[in-house]
Amino acid sequence: MPEKHLTGAVPGLGRTARKSAAVALSLAALAAGATTVAGPAAARPRTAPAAAPGCSAAYTIEQKLTTGTTWRMCWRYDSKAGLVLQNVSYQPKGENKPIKVLNSARLGQIHVPYDDGKHEWYDLTDQTFAQDLMELSPGECPGGTIKTVKVPDGDPRHPNVKGLCTTTRSRGHAYRMHDSLQSGRTYQQQGKDLLVYTVNQVGWYEYISEWRFQDDGTIAMNVGATGSLSWEDYNAQDGRGWPIGKGARDYSTSHSHNVFWRLDFGLDGSSRTKVEQYDSTVSAPSGSQEGPTAKTTRTKVTKELAGDSKAYRWWRVVSATGKNKDGHARSYELVPGPTTRYPGRDFTRHDIYVTEYDKCELFAVKNSACDTGHPKSVDKWVNGQNLTHPVIWMNVGFHHIARDEDQQPMPVHWQGFSIAPRDVTAMNPLTPKELAWQNGHWE
Ligand SMILES: [Cu+2]
């Protein structure tokens, strides 16, 4: 995103100056051949949760929701990706131990090309997304805890930022059922979520990176763009913008936000997950058939994939080892969100990429951790390798044509997707005990 000028700065120098400083500060990290990580600066508080596997208590997020579901994970803060969640596990009330879901979950890039072809930003890797972690006030983490993050390569005067919120929220009905057959009772439950988020500033924009862990096992990841429109780009005179001030003078240049997420599944503790694609074909009635029919087919994704969402298509990641109490293989379904696929670059041409794990492949594009000969972007990593440890890359695009309401401040615009449990538990993980026998053909 375009750089926000510091007060009194010379227009046009802001971005350059700040970017150069960031590059200098990053050199040590790059020389070490790895992105640096850091965690909380504060000493372990007395009330710290027990440590999750793989991290100390200070790096642990553990939340038992009032509906009985516990989420556990480790967190760290990467010098480019910002918040990284690791070793994420889910334990609904009926399970006696945590069920591991993800080895790691992180942003994989935010690519922002402008419609006039004059700007193309890579906000995670080329801007100071991670360094510009915003301090949160208690009011924007209602009922929650704001953790202190030691920001790698950050402003040495303010290395510690109170910038990681963990809190809980109600999401409305988890279910509702009126049992007219037997008890006459109405069963209903209000769903509860754990939310984990940071706000990172990039130029005029602020991105809210939100991870939502629901009590029903769903994980939703979304990026919300807010802050301000870039006023340096109120200059579209070529029909590639929208007038946002009085009359028709200030045209804000249209642009896209293409956000990538990288998910490394570790279902039931194993990285050797299987990926499946399902497609259904619906046919009009023929012959003696009374109604239209639908046929669903499964395709095993055994080699790396560049895939596209479409109606009647979905994917799931299946556990290699774990089964639920009904004997069904545990899996997580990938649930795409609304997207505008950007055809301008090879790496944005597909909605999903499934690549064989390679520890240097951390950003969908502008990935500096690999050797120089390594292919440069996620689309090129899809080259026919067999999948033994699949990594999921989701690409969600938004074409931002500004509107008058975008100032001021700009209302949050969300983009993202979710992953939902499919056969992780044998029944609804929130089933009340009175209904626990109603599994299968129970009548
Ligand atoms: Cu925008």
Overall description:
- With 443 residues, the protein is mainly β.
- It has one domain: Beta-galactosidase, Chain A, domain 5 (Distorted Sandwich).
- 5% of the residues lie in helices and 43% in strands.
- The chain contains two helices and 22 strands.
- The strands form three sheets. Strands 1, 2, 3, 4, 5, 6, 14, 17, 20 and 21 form a ten-stranded antiparallel β-sheet that branches.
- The termini are far apart.
- The relative contact order is 0.15.
State the total count of DSSP E strands.
22
Number of separate helices: 2
Low-confidence stretches: 1-48
How much strand? Answer: 35-45%
Overall helicity: under 10%
Mind telling me the CATH superfamily name? Answer: Copper amine oxidase, catalytic domain
CATH fold label: Beta-galactosidase, Chain A, domain 5
Order of helices and strands: HEEEEEEEEEEEEEEEEEEEEHEE
Q: Could you tell me how far the N terminus lies from the C terminus, measured between alpha carbons in angstroms? A: 58 Å
Q: How many structural units, i.e. domains?
A: 1
The backbone outline, from C-alpha atoms, is globular
Mean of all residue-level pLDDT scores: 89
If classified by CATH, what would the architecture be?
Distorted Sandwich
Bound molecules: copper (II) ion
- The whole-angstrom Rg is 23 Å
* Largest sheet report: 10 strands, antiparallel
CATH class: Mainly Beta
| Structural class category | mainly beta
